Amino acid sequence: MHPVRLAVLVCGAPIPIIKEEYGDYSLMVKKMLQASYPALPLDSEEEPFVLDSFDVVHEQAYPKDDAGYLGVIITGSSASAYDDVPWIKRLILYVADLVKSKPHVKLIGICFGLQIISCALGGTCVFNDGKWEAAVSEMELTPVGKEIFGVGVLNVQQMHRDHCPTVPPSFHLLGSSAMTYNQGVVRYTDTSSPASMQGRPLTDIHVFALQGHPEFVGPMVITRVNNHEATGKMDKRTADDARMRANWRNDGYNVVGKVIWAILGVGTVSSR
Questions:
Q1: Which of 80, 209, 229, 230 has its CA 20 to 30 A from that of 131?
Q2: Distance CA 84, CA 66 (A)
Q3: Distance separating alpha carbons of residues 109 and 165, to the nearest angstrom
Q4: Where residue 269 falls among pLDDT bands split at 50, 70, 90?
Q5: What would the pLDDT profile of 13-56 be if each residue is shown by its tens digit?
């Protein structure tokens, strides 16, 4: 068995205090995937997956067409998907072409990744009037979301002021939080399929994206909230509320991570 090959498009860097303790965004994604990877046989010594990183900001590096990646993951960023800068314009064009020309390659978006996917495929991303959604938020799931995640309510760490107010054409909404309508979307390979997705294998999913950060953990979020408050980016009331919720139950690794692997065809691949 050959290891699964994945590409991660790194769209920025964490603040130094977080990078020093938790690594860059690529390492955070890797830790989530390691923690959620389906158990290997006890006698297995194989590396289960390879995660290659591409700096799309400074190097504007992208996977080669013949690299054989099963999936491409787009990380979070402090940038905004609507910023009029060359690297974001190129990323949007890349995503649009990837979805059109490589339906066999799974596309996974995290926070900024969801926003880029939305902009590339007929949706929008806008500034949410300066309102922060930070720390764990409860995500009330749609029927499609319940079918995919196997739970009624999903708890995911958040850290954003931008949001996607609509669902792009041919996508299905996964759920909403009290602050953010579009907390995630999914697009199936057969975009003409009916609204009911009951019983469909998760491998039928082509694009999967969340507004939240399944790769974030509570202490990391508290550190970032403290920094945002100290630098004036976040008011005390919002920061206090976020610190209170940062260590609530977090379904990033044990639910979202496992769903990502199932979409990639590793582990349980049928909707539950």
A1: 209
A2: 30
A3: 16
A4: very low
A5: 999 999 999 999 999 999 999 999 987 666 666 778 999 999 99
Q: Residue 57, CB half-sphere, CA atoms under 13 Å: how many?
A: 17
Taking the CB of residue 3, how many other CB atoms lie within 10 A of it? Answer: 11
Residue by residue, DSSP assigns the chain as -PPEEEEEEE-----HHHHHHH--HHHHHHHHHHHHSPPPPTT--S--EEEEEEESSSS-----TTS--SEEEE---SS-TT---HHHHHHHHHHHHHHHH-TTSEEEEETHHHHHHHHHTT---EE-TT--EEEEEEEEEPHHHHHHHSSSEEEEEEEESEE--SPPTT-EE-EE-SS-S-SEEEEESSTTS-S--TT-BGGGEEEEEESS-TT--HHHHHHHHHHHHHTTSS-HHHHHHHHHHTTS---IIIIIIHHHHHHTTSS--B--
Contact 139, 96 (CB under 8 A): no
Measured between alpha carbons, how far is 165 from 168 in angstroms, rounded to an integer? 10
Query: Distance between CA 246 and CA 223 in Å, rounded?
Result: 10
